[in-house]
Every structure is written in structure tokens, then in C-alpha cells.
């Protein structure tokens, strides 16, 4: 069995999750058993699986694993199933219901769209929320959080199996600048109690138990989130093959490849020695890592941008069938994506070609209150481009987006590999990108299926946009070349790399 390790699967996932899903489907197509394994609690996960064409059989979550709900049949859980005292008054509100004891609100019941229970919050006489119950989308209470009524910070969490027994508990203490998990208790599937220092230890226990369930088969674990899943993997206590898969640059300063290494998994020699193989998305990064690390651990390149056969065989959409002047960006609205450069370059090109439009597909960074997204929208406003630059958010239907676009832009400060470039070209969309580490130079046939411009050169980027839209013949040629270039990333071609470096080496 092959296990792909990550933290969570959401409706608006990043390129890493999309790459994992593509890899999973590739393995299944070639008759090799594999699953995606996630470390974070996610009560919505099984509702999200169909968005990616996955089923319960493709996915294991750590909390599901210890709760015994990896495969759990949906059960309706409506307000009628709750035990609410008869003398309480239940009032319907927009989000669900509120429950009162005379004039005092005791509960707030939030419902999912299907009218099953989402969350129940409980209130004391001072109208402070004392605890909240959170329900899995499959119809059982999965988590209770208890809050300090003094300042409202989270103080305790209990995680439940469907039968109501607790299998995981976390205690929290409020520190000056953060909330610290001070004690974790896990009851595993055999009923053994573990007192843990952190959730990584729980994840390691699960990985070992998954490994033992596979019997005498030597399983392979592939860590796709070096900063989250690599340490639990390399410190497993049962024998297994352990692979670290990089999806981004391996050094801290994106302008300086000689800067300190980003992850302990490669900077710590003892941790690195526990790894059997390192995979990068491109040859240049693999070569740079070999030169930098001086390790006996093999470092190989396997592209992540797998193009399904059905897309390669799809009818081509010519430039004349697309929306004239439509430029797209597919990227998170994060600082490292440097979308302000793209907007500024577009603004220059727009001055000489008023037929151009720019649609930006991606979600913002809630961890900093969407500062980057706010800055980008203000920039669009300041440049008076609101009519032609549109923030489209996250989309599950990228096929129609690519099939209507004439050009894709990429202005990231760094990448490991850009799925957007590979997917755009597979839909016949040429790409203009900064020549950065790593990815664009591996993916774009410069001057044929798109252009590489000097890193950070906004004026050069603007000039290339203008040049592209000024020449209909060029657009047509690059349209065909993009389709042709994407054949390099067919499932059969990528599978040969997996067979060479991973599958057939066992």
C-alpha cells in the first residue's frame, strides 16, 4: 500500500492536494493500491471527497481512524433527535434555532443546509458561551470544545466516537501570544491510553497502526507536507519505506538558493538519514538539492502536473473560439504569488489594448485577515480597473475557465511546480511567467508555448502581454504548441517515472 501524507482536504485546497489526488488516480489506473492520509481533524472531509472524485476507500483521516469512522454510514441528526427539556422554548432563527429557559438563552443550534445539526453552543446566565458541540456531516457529535468564561479562550477539547466514548482529549493554556496545547490523551483502537506531547505523536501512532494492518507487505509512505507530516513518518517504529515529496523550494530566501534550508527533514542529518528517497517536481531542483545536501539519500525528479488521458484526447479549442483578450491567473491570493506585479503589468498592456480582461481565480489568506487580498483589490481600484479585473474566488470547474481563456499569467516569487501552467497548456492556453525557481522553465517551451520573462520585470511582462495580443498568428501557433507541449505530462509518461524510481525499486 502507498500512503500520501498531508494535513487536510478542503473544498478550496491548494496545488499540493490537487497533485495528490491526480497521483492517487494515476496509481489506481495502474492497479497500485494507494490512499490519501490526513492528520488534522476535519468533520467536513467526507462531504468534500466527491468534489475530487474520491470515495471513503481513497481517504484516511487520523481522527476518523481512531474514532472508527473511516467507513461510516450517514445518519440523519436533526433537532428532533436532541433531548431538550419540555419547558424550554425553541425559537427558529436564520441559522437554525435558539433555545430559552424563560428569558435566558441556553443553546444556539446551527444547522447544515440539509437541516441536520452542524453546531450546538451552550450559554451560561451571563450569556457567555461555555462549550460547543460540533457534528460530523455524517450525523454524529464528533467534538466538544469548552471555553474559559473569563476571556473566552479555548481550554479543553474532547473528540468522540459515534457511541459517545471519548478517544482524544486536548488541554489548552493561554500564553501571552498564543494558545498552547499542554496535554493530549489518546485512546487507540486497542483501548490503550497514550499521553502525548503533540499531535504529531498521535499521527505517528496511526501511521504505525496503518502499517501493521498491511501485514507482511512493506508499505510506502510519501510525505507531501514536509513541515507537518515528515517527522511523524521518519520516526515510525515499524519498518516501512519513507519518501519525502517536495512541492516547493527547499531554502528560506527565495532570492538566494544558498540561504538556509527550509526544513529540518533535510537540514538535520539524523532526520535525513531516516528517509529512503526524496522527490522533487523538476530536474533543476533535484540537481540543486544533490549538490547542496551531499547525502546518500537518492534525490530524483517526478513531475506533479499529471494530465489525464481524457483531457489530452479532448477536442481542441482554437483561439477564435475563446473570449477575445481574456487573461486568467490561477493562484492563491497570498504574498508569495506576487499578483500585484501581474495587475500592474496588465494595467500597462490595457492602456494600449482596451479589449483585455483579467480574471483571478484563487482564495485569500484568512490567517492575516486577508491583508494581501485587500491590498490587491485596492490596487485594482486605484488603477481604475474594476470593470476589467475580476476576483473570481475558488472554482471547482476549471475546465470551462481554461477553455475560454487566451492567456495565463504566473508571477510567483517561487514555486516547486505550478499545476496551473501544466493544466492551462493542456487546455491550449499559452503561459507568460517569471523565470523563477522552480517550475516554469521545466513546463513552458519558451517562445513556443509561452514566454519566460526575467524575474520581477513588470515592464517586460507587460510588453510580452501586448506582443502576444498584437499578433493573431502567434496566438494561434502558441495555442497549438501548448496542447502539444502538455503531452509530456500524460499519465503514461509520468507513470514511467514512478515505476523507475519508486514502484519497481521495491
TrEMBL record:
The gene is tagE6. This is Poly(Glycerol-phosphate) alpha-glucosyltransferase. It comes from the Bacteria. The lineage of its organism: Bacteria, Bacillati, Bacillota, Bacilli, Lactobacillales. It comes from Lactobacillus xylocopicola. InterPro entries: Glyco_trans_1. Residues 325-484 form the Glycosyl transferase family domain. Transmembrane segments: none annotated.
